[in-house]
Amino acid sequence: MKRYRNGEIWDFEHEMPVVAVGSRDVILGLDGGTTSTVCICMPMIPFSDPLPEPPPVLARAVAGCSNHNSVGEAAARETLELVMADALSKSGSNRYAVRAVCLAVSGVNHPTDQQRILNWLRDIFPSHVGLYVQNDAVAALASGTLGKLHGCVLIAGTGTIAYGFTEDGREARAAGAGPVLGDWGSGYGIAAQALTAVIKAYDGRGPLTLLTSSILKRLGLSSPDELIGWTYADPSWARIAALVPVVISCAEAGDEVANRILYDSVLELASSVKAVVQRLGLCGEDGNGKFPLVMVGGVLEANRRWDIGKEVIKCISKDYPGALAIRPKVEPAVGAALLAWNFFMKESLKKALKS
Amino acid sequence: MKRYRNGEIWDFEHEMPVVAVGSRDVILGLDGGTTSTVCICMPMIPFSDPLPEPPPVLARAVAGCSNHNSVGEAAARETLELVMADALSKSGSNRYAVRAVCLAVSGVNHPTDQQRILNWLRDIFPSHVGLYVQNDAVAALASGTLGKLHGCVLIAGTGTIAYGFTEDGREARAAGAGPVLGDWGSGYGIAAQALTAVIKAYDGRGPLTLLTSSILKRLGLSSPDELIGWTYADPSWARIAALVPVVISCAEAGDEVANRILYDSVLELASSVKAVVQRLGLCGEDGNGKFPLVMVGGVLEANRRWDIGKEVIKCISKDYPGALAIRPKVEPAVGAALLAWNFFMKESLKKALKS
């Protein structure tokens, strides 16, 4: 990876035409995950205007992993700075046009994580810029609610987490603690259970299953014995989670073991959402109150006959009939930009009321 | 780690008094695990004599990990060579006194692994020495049966495996595929379930449990949130498995969640043994046949009120009343030495019959 000298990332700004302050204000939304980081540059929408649908996007930039737990603080910071510079440069803008930034990155779990990132964001942007740091799940929620922090989001890709907000600002989460700590509804969880079922069928602990031939074929292996070497050769969770489509195919073909694994994952995922809804009282006092339930991630995509997301919604609706399922039409980085806009608008209105 | 030049490990042999060939023959037994490697040097017992109990030991040497999957081929080989040299040197012996070697190492799963290790053992020892390479589970079985390969061994420490042999030389194994592939009865499995229960109690997915305060206290953490950082800071399975005594204490104190986890592990461990017994027909045609069931490893140790090993035996005996539970009095390396003696005796008798 190229290392940048202090400030070098922003050299492009010297080559830009000078524009009048306020003439073309922008906001930045970042979605930083373990596989990639996306930055969206959006024009500043006047507070008086309704939010256009779909939200306008000036530029989109993509970079690698920005989870500080995975790549370390320095590399995460550089990736985030680079992707913001790239998005601004692509939209013909610069830091002086930025009004607000919302950085939604995975691995931000504590106020201390948040403060550390805020501190170095402060070094990059002028002091009047609104800066907001959130967990990436928050951007996913906002991508379904168009920037409003209310309701619950369920993310299920390689990992899984449920995250909820009340209108008065309380929040709660469930799962999201990784595969060792019980994220069994995730893509990794589903695939690991399927691999386990193959091993158990092979050594006599479990019933025979179509998963054996299907998974071995997909991986180009000739015996379940070889799964051990394959599994531990590379600790990447995403590599294991990539087997989810094989499990779904087997379930669709009627394999009982694969069906059991998928139903278990539905129960696990629904249980995460229910825990959040319960703790926040999102369903109101009578349990029938309406709330948005945003569904995000590869495991929940509605492109298969065996539709995990649909089953999860069915399971949640039994207890909470007011759950309004939303599959977002925009990506989480747009959600982050809308969040930045919302936060900044609220702060500006507060200041205006005070003065 | 110090690197040795070719042959340097064996320099001690030049400084030894010359002894007559056959005057003090020895056998070597090695038990190579993921945490340590033990080598036992035993005097050669005449084939006509009964095996003394306990078996005589001339010297014992200990070294680090010799699992080639963990440390690589070269380091594993050097560790094994060093520990053999150490045991021989300690017993005032040398390679020319060795009649047979049994190397029982974890990670040996395929005939190709076996052949590779045999090839370099051939470079070390004179051609008349009997060389045998086995999975470490085999040495654990032999430590309970005093060198006889018959019955089933259940190992449950950080990991778990069940391994069985029939008297006519057929073998079968179950589990032993590591935590991702369903070794839920292992120490790692028990501890990971306990950590998961703490997370689930914290985020509202599961019932409150005594495990929360007990595990946090043991780890010096103040909130379940911090378990995430603790868990992924170090990928060592043994570090997580070290929490098993906390789970047992909580179960003994009446905690339902901890009890459920231990009972689940009992079922998993029993299921491994049952699969092996079933496949090999160790229980005879009527299902009541007697067979040795050797129980090895920290999880099965009978030093607690909540005795996991006892529960496993109870569970197996329901289906297979002929299971004769054995908790070995000698360590697996002694089992490996007895195996070497047994293998070598059989080969020698075969040769004698032919000539």
From TrEMBL, chains A, B:
Domain ATPase BadF/BadG/BcrA/BcrD type intervals: 28-340
Alphabetical list of Pfam families matching this protein: BcrAD_BadFG
Molecular function via GO: N-acetylglucosamine kinase activity
Entries under InterPro entries matching the protein: ATPase_BadF, ATPase_NBD, Euk-type_GlcNAc_Kinase
EC number(s) on file: 2.7.1.59
Family: Belongs to the eukaryotic-type N-acetylglucosamine kinase family.
Protein known as: N-acetyl-D-glucosamine kinase
Organism per entry: Ziziphus jujuba (Chinese jujube)
Taxonomic classification: Eukaryota, Viridiplantae, Streptophyta, Embryophyta, Tracheophyta
